[in-house]
Amino acid sequence: xxxxxxxxxxxxxxxxxxxxxxxxxxxxxxxxxxxxxxxxxxxxxxxxxxxxxxxxxxxxxxxxxxxxxxxxxxxxxxxxxxxxxxxxxxxxxxxxxxxxxxxxxxxxxxxxxxxxxxxxxxxxxxxxxxxxxxxxxxxxxxxxxxxxxxxxxxxxxxxxxxxxxxxxxxxxxxxxxxxxxxxxxxxxxxxxxxxxxxxxxxxxxxxxxxxxxxxxxxxxxxxxxxxxxxxxxxxxxxxxxxxxx
Length: 245
Fold this sequence. Notes:
By secondary structure, the protein is α/β, with parallel strands linked by helices. It is 38% helix and 17% strand. The protein has a single domain, classed as Rossmann fold, CATH 3.40.50. The protein contains 9 helices and 9 strands. The termini are far apart. 39% of the residues are buried. The model has no long low-confidence stretch (mean pLDDT 93). InterPro entries: ThiF/MoeB/HesA, ThiF_NAD_FAD-bd, Ubiquitin-activating_enz. Keywords: Nucleotidyltransferase, Transferase.
């Protein structure tokens, strides 16, 4: 198969962006951390846009409760690693994509190892659910001048038209963004990267407490909201890589 034929699936993207910007995407390396409801959709949209290299990070396996909203979650994939399933899917979409797959919870020193390993990243997508590792990844990216976008909570919301993409300092009426801002303020960070969030009020009774690994609560989530957040994260990644943000 010639390179021309191998990239024929990118024809419509190149028609939209032009050959130079399509090539820019092909030469880019994007990191996606967290491959659940938001992250997997973000990763797929980035791959479908023609980005040539990606690093996918998630240690989780598919659970039965993921099926209502997560791209990799099917009855046939329950119990299988999310990162491996998504990697196989992306290779089927973009056969010449270069993938690094890391099945590890990224926290503490693992964040530094991830960000300092191998060739540098041109962009990072933070789709981590848990606050402490989320903060570590964001601070690590900012400290290394890696452009990023961070997804806030898509759970307990139902109206996609209320979603916003704004600088973290201008996020509002989002509990996760509020907690994130407080942590970042302690590190002297008040702005400097975009977040995807929704100020829609949390639906009453949509959260229950739990004691699971890296998780203290379960939040009710509708099928389409994580996908919308993931697509928004992908749009920020692509437009930033192209210099159009």
